[in-house]
Structure formats: C-alpha cells, structure tokens
Amino acid sequence: HGRFMFNLDANLFAGPALVQAYRLSEEAQWLGLRVDQEVAERSAQIPICSERGRPSVIPWPIPQKAGGIENSLVIDWVETHRNNFQVKAPIGVEEFYAPFERLFGPLDALSVSARAKYENTVGFINDRLSR
What we know:
By secondary structure, this protein is of the alpha+beta class. The chain has helices spanning 16-27, 37-45, 77-80, 93-97, 101-104, 112-129, and strands spanning 5-7, 12-14, 34-35, 57-63, 69-75. β1 and β2 form a beta hairpin. The longest helix has 18 residues, at 112-129.
C-alpha cells in the first residue's frame, strides 16, 4: 500500500509500494504472501478473520534466498482456506509439489534452492494446519 504510479500508454508501473512488494516477494524462499507494516495496520482496521475467528495476517519467520530468516508479516492463507485442503496433514513435499511437476519438472531435478521453497512452504502449511 502506498504511492503507486502507472502509465498504460508506456506500459510503465512504478512507485515505492511496487518496489516494496517486489522485494518482499523476491527475497523470500517460500511460496506465500508477505505484507509490509502499512498493509498489516490497514488490514487490522478492517479485520478479515477465518471461520474460526483467527486473523488473516500473522507474524512468521521467512527463510530468505540469501540465507537467514527475516521475521515478517504474512497472509495466513492456510487458516483462511483450511477447509479447501483435499489432503490430510501432515502434507509431504512430494504431495504438495505434484501439481507443479508439469511446469517445472520432477522435484528431484530441482536445484537445492528451488526445492527449499517448496520445503519451507510445506513447513508453513503443516504448522498452520496443526493449530
């Protein structure tokens, strides 16, 4: 959320909000939705909760592509969509990755870095489903 400019004639999109969203997305070594403090504060003003009354934005330690962990605010999409899961927890990495195989090839053929994204995401899913 923030200043954002665009010029459709020039296919130009710019602004600090876009840069921040890109940074939050590209630095993370997982598949999920990170938000900045501004978005989290605005979402608290209009609380969006799960059917169980749990908040949709939570703090979570996000593994970074460059190494290390960054405490971040994330959308708890597992909580808000927990009734949509077709498989029982705990979910394995192979099971989670299966729909992506057609696009990216076999899980075993992925680089260590690429595989880590799926492993970290499955860790998040299983943790959130166990609560």
